[in-house]
TrEMBL record:
GO terms for biological process: L-arginine biosynthetic process. The keyword Membrane does not apply. It comes from Chloracidobacterium thermophilum (strain B). This is Acetylornithine aminotransferase apoenzyme. Pathway: Amino-acid biosynthesis. SUPFAM superfamilies: PLP-dependent transferases.
Amino acid sequence: MLEARYGLGLYVSRGITLVRGAGAYVWDSDGRRYLDCTAAYGVASLGHCHPAVVEAISQQAATLIACSGSFGNDQRAQLYADLMTVLPYGLTRVFFCNSGAEANEAALKFARLTTGRHGVVAAQRGFHGRTAGALTATWEPKYREPFEPLLPGFTYIPYNDEAALDAAITDEIGAVILEVVQGEGGVRPGTTAFLHRAQQLCRERGALLILDEVQSGFGRTGTFFACEAVGIEPDILTMAKGIASGFPMGAVALGERVAKLSPGQHGTTFGGGPLACAAARATVRVLKETNLPAQVERLSGLFFERLRAIPSHRIREVRGRGYMIGIELTEPAAPYIAAAQERGLLVLNAGVNVIRLLPPLVLTEEDITLATMILKEILR
Ligand SMILES: Cc1ncc(COP(=O)(O)O)c(C=O)c1O
């Protein structure tokens, strides 16, 4: 009630109030339990309230909560070192911010500074956030058009279309920004050939390749970063969502083709704060120690197999990679998403017809059995 009264109504309410979470489950204010295959928009990568993250945040909260970028900080320093052990080859410097949109905003600025060109190639159905630059890179006209004029010089090519990419990267283009697996746009994996071509053309023509791994990063697709599985090395990699298991954080990693930056060229008050860094350090440590990406790779195979075996004329296609799963229906997904919630399973949409699952990476085989059973029941 209070939220409806004082909020802006920017989110269609799901009608329940979540008050507690543990692992892959959340509980509402009436004590009902739900298997959370939304992970709070793909954020709770280690599951809700993972003990290592709770411990790291609690300890850090009692030690130092705020520290600006003008001062060194032990947590930030250690997180740089930790990230260097997991980032794709060639990425050697990192900027910390607070969200995915901010990470992409920074990436676009860094690319412009480096190349002196303001042209950007983005993909149709791509999603990169809601701030001005990130929104310009986002394709969906209903998100973008009410706010035009946005940034000049953006071209949107069909995703996975190598010829269109080739034609679009002119000598005015400073950056190509792509998701490795499109999330919001319907859960569509990029082909290896397309992503390799993007890397090759960027190098040949003096543009920078920005990979947006805000949703696909930190183990979600079965490797630490989704680009590892396709064997490409971006010039800029953007991260957020799962990086700190729910604590707000974004980051941008830069390779050698990106210019050195000088003081004042970019900045943020909260970015790289001790609490976020402590939560991210715990996340990276647990991901590595338990090899969760490998578990995602293994169990998601089983999940896909079971979902594809659901006998339903309502399912057009089940696609995705790891725990980015899209079930495209032949009709609108909203009633089925509501029906799943009624039965104790939280899922998302991606566009009108796609049911999207972004579960915590700690999902067990029993959880997969439960999710499949509910989906089978409602899609029958
Ligand atoms: C691929 C991708 N990039 C960027 C964003 C924006 O991130 P944020 O909502 O943290 O600004 C999202 C959010 O869904 C995303 O999926």
